[in-house]
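tool_call: predict_structure(chain=1)
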Amino acid sequence: MYNYEEKLNDLKRRLEYAKNKRIKAETRLEQLQIQKRELMNEIKKLGFEPDNLEQEIKNLESEIMNLINEAESLMPKDI
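tool_result:
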């Protein structure tokens, strides 16, 4: 004979597990959204626009390379 009570208990247990996972995921999402807002505000405080960060990084990399090249050109050649 089929055990309905056992099956129902199993379904309840699995449902409770899924609810707990959802709550944990929602909590984590909230934490990450708060962290994102804080990081965006920090980036703005530093004088950068979050949407332009990739271009800013490229500009800084280019500036670094230019300064390295300039420093190398100023070094004596006979060393």
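agent: The chain has a mean pLDDT of 95. Proceeding to next step.
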